[in-house]
Structure formats: C-alpha cells, structure tokens
Write a structure and sequence with these properties.
The chain is α/β, with parallel strands linked by helices. It has two domains: about 240 residues, 3-Layer(aba) Sandwich (Aldehyde Dehydrogenase, Chain A, domain 1); about 190 residues, 3-Layer(aba) Sandwich (Aldehyde Dehydrogenase, Chain A, domain 2), CATH 3.40.309. The protein contains 16 helices and 18 strands. It has a seven-stranded mixed β-sheet, sandwiched between helices. The chain is globular. The mean pLDDT is about 95. The chain binds nicotinamide-adenine-dinucleotide. Nicotinamide-adenine-dinucleotide binds next to helix 8 and helix 9.
Length: about 500
C-alpha cells in the first residue's frame, strides 16, 4: 500500500459498512445493456421528461434532506439549499433548456485535405456509465453528474459515499421511486461495492473523490479501456498581493474556506500573503470571522458551521494541527478541537514548516496556513513544484501581476479577486488537471463527458481520393508532392 493510500485508509469509518452483493449489481449491469442501446436514439423531450421527474422527486423530499444532512454532518438547512439543492437544480434547468441544441450534430468545416466533403460530429450516448461520488457534497456530487448522464442518454449506476449514510438513504429512495434499475440504479456500500463495480466493463466512469482512489479507478478502467472523468482534489493555493483589497479578500476567503467547514475540493488550502500587508490581512480575516460566525468564544455553538464528517476525519485534522504546531506553526485564531462533537474551530496559522503535513496534504477542513512572501517568482516556483491544484485564487489590483501568475502556473480552474464561485458558473468547464483530475463536468461540458463525439463523414460527388490513389506514376507522385508543399502556405 502506498503512503498516499495508507493515509486515505485511516480516514475510513471504523464501523463495518454494508456492501451490496456483487451478483446483485452484475444482474442490474446486464439488464442495463439493452436499455442503453435503446436510449441511444432517445429524443431530447424524453430526456427532459426524466430530468423533470427527478426534479419533482428531489424537491418533494426537502424535509428528509434537511434531516439527513443534519444527522450526517450537522449541515444547516440554508447550506443544504445553497450548496446541494441549488447547484443540482441549476444543472437541471441548464440541461432542460439546452439539451436539444447540445444533441444536434455540429458541422465540421473542411480543411485542405477534406475539401468537398460533408462532415458532422454526432453526440452519441456512451452507454452504461458508473458514477462514484464522495461524501463532502453528497447530494450535489451524486445527482449533478446524473443530470448530465441522463441528458446525454445513458443508463447509470450510482455509488454514493458510505460516509454520509443518511443522505445516501434519501438519494436511494428517490432513485428507486423515479427509475427502473435497468435505467438508473443506486448501490450503497464502501470499498468492496466500488471494487466490484469497477471490475465491470462500463462505457464510462465519472469518479469524484481523492487522487489516491482516482488512481485505483483509472487502473481498473484501464483493464477494459473504459474512458474516465476524474474529479479529484489537492491543495488549492491563494495569493494576496500588496495591491489587493484586503477587506474584500479576507471576507471572501473566510466565507469560501468555511463553507461546508472547509470540506470542499476547491476550498482555499493555503494562502500566500505579501509581507507588507500580512498584518492587515490577518486583522481583516479575524474581523470577517467575527462577522460570519460570531465571537471566537461562541463559535463552537454556531449552527451555521457544518461539522467535520466523522471522528476519523476529526482525528486526521487534529493530527495535522498538532504536527504543524510541533514543527513551529503559531495559531492566529482558533485551534480548539472537540472530538466528541466533531468540532474544529476555524483556525488560521502562521509559520508552518515546509515539511509539515499541513503544507503537504490536502487539508479538507477548517485549518488555513498563511505563508508570507515578498517575491512572486518564488511563489510561482513553489506552486509549479507541487502537483497541479484543482483551483488557484489571486487577489490583486495589478493586472500585470494577475497575468504573470495565470500564465506561469497551471490549475483546474482559477478565480481573480474571488474564490470558489467558478464552480457555480454553468458555462465554465469544472475539472482538474493531472493530479487534480482528468476531464470536466457541468452544463455542456458534463453532457460532452457522458457523450462520445463521433466523427461522421459523408462522401459526395467529388472523389478527391482518386487523385492520391495508385498507380503512382511520376506525374501522380509530382502532384502529391505539390499538394504537400502547398500546405506550407497559410490557411485562407
Ligand atoms: P474518496 O476517494 O475516499 O471516496 C470517493 C468514493 O470512492 C466513495 O464513494 C468511496 O466509497 C469510494 N472509494 C473509497 N476508497 C475506495 C477504494 N479503495 N476503491 C474504490 N472505491 C473507493 O474521497 P472522499 O473522501 O469521499 O472525498 C474527498 C476527496 O474528494 C477530496 O480529495 C476532495 O478534494 C475530492 N473531491 C473532488 C471534487 C471535484 O469535483 N474535483 C469534489 C468533491 C470532492
């Protein structure tokens, strides 16, 4: 087991988790084959009708969602609406309004070697797809990709996370109510359920989770040459330069960092702040925390702060915090841990050692190390030396500095003078790059992730291939050479 996987295994629940028997899943997978073939020619109206039925069922369970989220992670009803229901409803509305145009074949304009040929790109459903979801936004990250998969005309098997069992139970009930399993089925369970599903020859796997498990998924997919979309995580850096609007940056970051209690794949993971403005930035962060969550003394009782998902993760975060302190980090605010309540206070740290866990592992919780810088080139070099992050945020009023950072770094997505909200923009691709993911989802990009872009060429009266066909006489050879040489000329 790699150290990455061992660290991951330590976060799994201690109690044994129910797993769906492999034969039961195999039977459903087999039953989905004829359905997937028939769905290939389904119309936009049929796909829209399914998404609408799912929407009704989802909204009919509002109270059940609230109760399940309260039990699983003490998430407030407002946050359930804003971070779970809203993105899925938006995804549904987008798909309902656009799927007809997404499904239309698009014209491919000819290039020199294809003059006179008619070519189209057809968007064909992939077939039987598997969606594996994480626990941190268990409704959003299960049903959001499902909407894209339905819009693209696939059958689906869903595997939600075992860490949020109450939300899973509501999701399972809705799926069973709306769909026949030959079209969409949901199987609850943990690693064994995932492993059995990953052994099946799906046409596409859409996985959201950690890079460590992403590698397992990709290895399993390779056995069948199944295509994958991997929505992974990592350490998303934030840069605050000396020209930034510090009050705005602090308020925005404290909101983004503590949404879902920092358990967000694109949460700001660590902050580089220019030495000249560090003190003022920290003061503004403390002010923003007071405004968002009340005084430090009362924060542990604040119902707006979602809890850490389970004891294992609370212990993991407490371990990261202890390691940072032992290696010299100072606490600017927070630091309180109450394991019995899965509570960790919103915590800002300074002076974290480069070799501490907090500077090397994805934090995924309410801890935020602040790192001073004076040379932006060093910041860029450090970001480039680390695995490519899922998101990168820069707060600055200096457009040259912003361009310098954007053009010299890589990340799945980026925000300038904002954080996290690129996720909510339905016309932007959402995804990572290398260690933070492969492929993207949301809106049209989600539809395309679940579609095969099939090249369809139609021959006409002009048979130009004859000009390139044997017998290769000296004249024919000279002609082909002239054509090849002409490609040096610019396109019209
Ligand atoms: P995880 O990788 O532990 O689990 C994700 C899913 O994989 C779960 O359904 C789980 O049951 C399954 N799984 C776990 N171990 C497995 C194994 N050995 N073999 C097969 N399947 C296995 O991730 P998590 O802890 O649920 O979620 C947190 C991670 O997900 C973070 O890294 C976060 O950044 C990332 N994430 C990414 C996005 C995104 O959109 N890019 C969104 C949310 C979370």
């Amino acid at each position: 087991m790699t150290s990455e996987l061992a660290a991951h295994a330590a976060t799994l629940p201690q109690a044994p988790v129910f797993d769906t028997p492999a034969e039961q899943m195999q039977a459903v997978f087999d039953a989905q084959l004829p359905k997937a073939l028939s769905l290939r020619s389904s119309t936009a109206a049929q796909r829209i009708a399914k998404i609408k039925t799912l929407r009704e069922a989802l909204l009919a369970e509002r109270e059940a969602w609230y109760a399940a989220f309260a039990q699983d992670m003490r998430k407030s009803q407002a946050e359930v609406e804003a971070t779970e229901m809203l993105p899925v409803l938006d995804e549904m509305r987008h798909a309902i309004g656009r799927v007809k145009s997404w499904m239309k074949p698009t014209r491919a304009w000819p290039t020199t070697t294809s003059l006179g040929l008619k070519a189209r790109i057809h968007y064909q459903s992939r077939g039987r797809v598997l969606i594996i979801a994480p626990w941190n936004y268990p409704l959003n990250l299960c049903l959001g990709p499902l909407v894209s998969a339905l819009a693209a005309g696939n059958t689906v098997i869903l595997k939600p996370s075992e860490m949020t069992p109450n939300v899973s139970a509501v999701t399972a009930r809705i799926i069973a109510k709306v769909f026949d399993p030959s079209e969409v089925a949901l199987f609850e369970g943990a690693q064994a359920t995932s492993t059995a599903l990953l052994a099946m020859p799906f046409d596409h796997i859409f996985f959201t989770g950690s890079p460590a498990v992403g590698k397992i998924v990709m290895t399993a997919a390779a056995k069948h040459l199944t295509s994958v979309t991997l929505e992974l995580g990592g350490k998303s850096p934030t840069i605050i330069d000396e020209s930034a609007d510090l009050a705005m940056a602090a308020e925005n970051l404290m909101w983004g960092k503590h949404l879902n209690n920092g358990q967000t794949c694109i949460a700001p993971d660590y902050v580089y702040v220019h030495t000249k403005v560090k003190a003022e930035f920290v003061a503004q962060c403390l002010k923003a925390l007071d405004k968002l969550f009340g005084s430090e003394a009362s924060r542990s009782a604040n119902p707006d702060l979602t809890r850490v998902v389970n004891t294992r993760h609370t212990q993991r975060l407490a371990g990261i915090l202890a390691d940072a302190r032992a290696k010299g980090a100072g606490i600017l605010v927070g630091g309180q841990v109450d394991e019995s309540q899965n509570y960790i206070a919103p915590t800002l740290l300074e002076g974290a050692a480069a070799d501490s866990r907090i500077m090397n592992e994805e934090i995924f919780g309410p801890l935020l190390p602040i790192v001073e810088f004076s040379d932006i080139n060093q910041v860029i070099a450090q970001i480039n030396a680390a695995p490519k992050p899922l998101a990168l945020y820069i707060f600055s009023k200096d457009s040259e500095r912003i361009d310098q950072v954007l053009s010299n770094t890589s990340s799945g997505g980026a925000c300038v003078n904002h954080c996290m909200v690129h996720y909510a923009h339905g016309n932007l691709p959402f995804g990572g790059v290398n260690n933070s993911g492969i492929g993207s989802g949301h809106g049209h990009f989600g539809f395309k992730a679940f579609s095969h872009e099939r090249a369809v060429l139609t021959g006409g009266w002009l048979r130009s291939e004859k000009l390139f066909a044997p017998p290769y006489t000296p004249k024919r050879f000279a002609f082909i050479r002239r054509i090849v040489d002409s490609l040096k000329l610019p396109m019209l």
